[in-house]
Amino acid sequence: TRIEKAGYKHFMAKEIAEQPVVLADALRHYVQDQHLNLPVDFTGVDRLTMVACGTASYACHVAKYWFEQLAGLPVEVDIASEFRYREPPLSPTSWALFVSQSGETADTLAALRYAKEKVAKIVSVVNVPTSSIARESDLALPILAGVEVGVASTKAFTCQLTVLALLALKAAVDRGRLDADGLAKHLADLASLPGLMNHALGGGDYPEIAEELAEAQDILFLGRGSMFPIALEGALKLKECSYIHAEGYASGELKHGPIALIDARVPVIVMAPRDALFDKTVSNMQEVMARHGRVLLISDAQGVAEAGSGCWRTLTMPQAPDFLAPILYALPAQLLAYHTAIAKGTDVDQPRNLAKSVTVE
Ligand code: G6P
């Protein structure tokens, strides 16, 4: 069947808007009657090595926080082009997990083949269930995002995150870290995500903010904890779509370099839900403002009320459980990239020099 834009100007806009629906599909597939429908057992697994490229690698970075915090399982994350050549030692009691929208990325496939005889199990999280990566895995978990046409990955990213969150919960249960009540609470939180996403997609003055971002030469994204990989993803998406130089940084690293770039011309996008690390991120944000950096604070209503004064702009997100905030905050990252690309007049669905699937090295 031919995939149409269904009234949207671009596939990217359509795919951003589809996220609440496809994410609900993925949840229905993997969660039934308060049980996780995942044919894996993490008992005895001592380490997880996660490998991917591009946006999929940022999904792995978010998942590392989840596997470590919820399941106490040590995780290593690497990009496939590095992993495959550094020939890392892998323990026979570990698992390797590969994340790929297309399932055909050459470096990720080569990394999978490298890990094949060395680890106990090869698991993949893919959007294309018939792909090479899916076929060569011991277990392939589909993300059920539907066909993604826009080169810049959007709905595949949030569906990857959702499947990885469910896997982290399964690991937590198998490793005795999460009882039935705890699981039920996290599953209820996950079930609320599509609604929170609808809410997030409905708000925000993105076109107006984007008009101003489009004037910038450099843009910084800051985040802490599981919001750090979302800052990386925000910067990647923005540079891919708008061709503006953007960098994502862990807030705590600000003083170790990027603070030298701050002046009144550099917008700094701070992704800071009101979680346990909020005050620390806000203090980094104030260091930026003291140097006349233009801060766009993305937080929930309470965070914006507490720390929004003096910011150049704010975007208010619905209140979300800490565990799931990275999935929700992926949306403003996508929308900023999309609208800035529109303001710049670039080819959003097919940015120059990029390919949807990189099947050659
Ligand atoms: C390309 C695409 C990205 C994608 C990356 C990994 O760079 O433009 O959107 O994140 O490849 O692709 P995969 O299909 O393995 O997820």
Automatic annotation (TrEMBL):
Enzyme Commission number, as recorded: 2.6.1.16
UniProt name for this protein: Glutamine--fructose-6-phosphate aminotransferase [isomerizing]
Catalytic class of the enzyme: transferase
Catalyses which reaction(s): D-fructose 6-phosphate + L-glutamine = D-glucosamine 6-phosphate + L-glutamate
Molecular function terms from GO: carbohydrate derivative binding; glutamine-fructose-6-phosphate transaminase (isomerizing) activity
Keyword Iron set for record: no
Presence of keyword Cytoplasm: yes
Subcellular location: Cytoplasm
Annotated SIS domain residues: 38-177, 209-351
Keywords attached to this entry: Aminotransferase, Cytoplasm, Glutamine amidotransferase, Repeat, Transferase
Organism name: Cereibacter changlensis JA139
Active site: K356
One of the GO BP terms on file: UDP-N-acetylglucosamine metabolic process
Quaternary structure, from the entry: Homodimer.
A GO CC term attached to the entry: cytosol
Function noted in UniProt: Catalyzes the first step in hexosamine metabolism, converting fructose-6P into glucosamine-6P using glutamine as a nitrogen source.
Whole-protein coverage range: 241 to 601 of 601
